[in-house]
Amino acid sequence: MSITIRRATEDDAPALSRICLLTADAGTSAEHLHDYGELPGLAYAVPYVKLPTTWGFVMVDDASSEVVGYIVGSKDTRAYEKYAAEHWWPKLVEKYPPSLAKKPDDERYMKLFANMHTAPDANIALAAAHLHIDILDAYQGRGWGRRLITTAIEYLKGENVEGAGVWLGMDPRNVKARAFYERLGFKRVEGADENQYGIKFADYKG
């Protein structure tokens, strides 16, 4: 299997949206949970190729030229949250009123757009940067997640990130993901809930 990792671009938005949906149910497909399959990606993937302070990398299967995984994030979470609150979420609130929803998960995302959560202060105290990572099931367990995170951390090291680290929030049901992050040296963020994990660049075990 030959894989290329490259910078993500706005043209990758449809692929990011698809991968996000196919991994949105604690690492498995959430297709059956949505009539509006674009909603998870609009919350957690697509903004990172559209908004300021963001960065991203994608995995491309060289045989098919298909994007099969990604790692995305922001170098300055508070600036990202502010810009998204003014320019991204309001458009989605208008486009996806909860009255459209027939499935609970669609309704949950539609309500989330109107009241998007923000990072705990404890996370920001650790580092300004955050990330999201998703890889299609067929490509997991082959070391690509580690390579994506290594690529992201090497990039962020050159971006003068406040706190010289990065953090993420994880689905508590995804035990495999938790074990993966812990192997790389990520630890629970002190002062935040148990699903917030972070790492200083100097402590990364990639």
UniProtKB/TrEMBL annotation:
GO terms for molecular function: acyltransferase activity, transferring groups other than amino-acyl groups. Pfam families: Acetyltransf_1. Coiled coil: none annotated. It comes from the Eukaryota. PROSITE patterns: GNAT. Residues 3-206 form the N-acetyltransferase domain. InterPro entries: Acyl_CoA_acyltransferase, GNAT_dom, MshD_Acetyltransferase. PANTHER family: L-AMINO ACID N-ACETYLTRANSFERASE, N-ACETYLTRANSFERASE DOMAIN-CONTAINING PROTEIN. This is Acetyltransferase (GNAT) domain containing protein. It comes from Lyophyllum shimeji.
